[in-house]
Amino acid sequence: MAPCPAGDAEVRGFGVRKRRVKERMDDRTRQRQPLLDTLVGYMEARYEHLRALLERADTAGGGEVITLDGRAYERLWSRVDERRIRLGGKENVRVLDQTSGKHVNVAAAEDAAFFEWAIVEVLRHTGIRIEEALELTHLSVRQYQRPNGEIIALLVIAPSKSDRERVIPMSAELFSIAAAIIRRHTQDGRAIPLLPRYDPHERQASPAMPYLFQREIGTNQDVISPATVVNMLRRRCEELAERHPGFLTTCFTPHDFRRLFATELVNNGLPIHIGAALLGHLNLETTRGYVAVFNEDVVHHYQEFIGRRRNSRPSDEYRDVTEQEWSEFEEHFDKRKVGLGGCTRPYGTPCRHEHSCLRCPMLAINPKMLPRLDEIEEDLLARRARAERESWLGEVEGIDLTLALLRQKREETNRLARIAPVNLGIPSIQPTPATRRVRST
DNA sequence: TATTCATCTCCTGGGATAGG
DNA sequence: CCTATCCCAGGAGATGAATA
């Protein structure tokens, strides 16, 4: 098609309309940003509540009333349950929620709540598109070894919009979520079931793969569909609206987490081209479009970044990430060294759990840290013996506490190592320039 | 602007349950 | 054991946003 001449009536007003659309999306993100923590907290609390309820209702007899977090539930028992047991199965754990008067299948509700929590966590920690999230498989969780021997967990995102796969380093939180999903699927010692997934865009089913977001609905094992996630988020936001007025007019969609992720990254000082690599954008303008929410901040960061780069390489603005920049990004991990090993939280994000390294999930999952734990234990035992000789009672108590945590950590590490991809025969990868660089066109 | 893709919405079907 | 009903996930078309 021939290009339209400037001033053509057909394109007049197009720029204005684009700006209005952009303003609407920015406003959407601004509205949701302060609500994110509430939503995340609610999802987590809801899962914890149902998990505890399942634990207690499972052992309760029919008619027994269970009180949990101020809510009363009556354990139900029906003829169907007896029939299921007679047929060699297990009864459904159902309760009557005495507050709402509704029947709840606790086992199903707990399972749903787990995956609801997990998908929200994955979306907000990775900023990936909903389809990419649902396409994550066991094989997407990889590791690669830095030249210094350190292992970094990576998430391989299959392409959905562009045709290039991308690899993003996993934060401690993200890895613990992935491990929780894998652990849930493999808790009875079986591998993650291989399932085909229907792709609504391609209109065809994929080959059978160990999808992470799959669950049992009735007798069917199915991969969770995008519509399910949308509906789930709407239901949860509606529930929250009863207590939190902010949710009365605001509902989250999966894509909102992506906008929030992009905004947070850039506001935390991550160079925009690395942000683009993490988000899988081919064009920096796209990333800028996502994050130009807090305008002054972003413009400031962006100008500063462009300015620095102009000084060193005046004529080459939209270039690939250089080896040096990428190493700098990687070296950031080295700056996060703590007593017991390495903390691989994302670039530019502060740790909210200061002095809690022993309980940090990232520290537990790296089996390479085990010999180091042994060394530390020896050291602690020696210090304890001395403290005891000198009758420093407070010190002995403190060391005992640390020792207990350390042993718990070791046990956890061994347990996780059995299910973590590290030991599942998944090959390590060295990312090639093709998989780790920003492409600017 | 053209094209691709995300989201919404409505319909269908299957599982769970209660009651006969 | 059968059937009615409810609930919810999945499928697919429609609509509009995102992207190149």
From TrEMBL:
GO annotation terms (biological process): DNA integration; DNA recombination
Database matches in SUPFAM superfamilies: DNA breaking-rejoining enzymes
GO MF annotation list: DNA binding
Residues in the signal sequence: none
Keywords recorded for this protein, A-Z: DNA recombination
A family per Pfam: Phage_integrase
Domain of life: Bacteria
Domain Tyr recombinase stretches: 91-303
InterPro entries given in the database record: DNA_brk_join_enz (IPR011010), Integrase-like_cat_sf (IPR013762), Integrase_catalytic (IPR002104), Tyrosine_recombinase_XerCD (IPR050090)
Database matches in PROSITE patterns: TYR_RECOMBINASE
This protein's name: Putative DNA integrase/recombinase
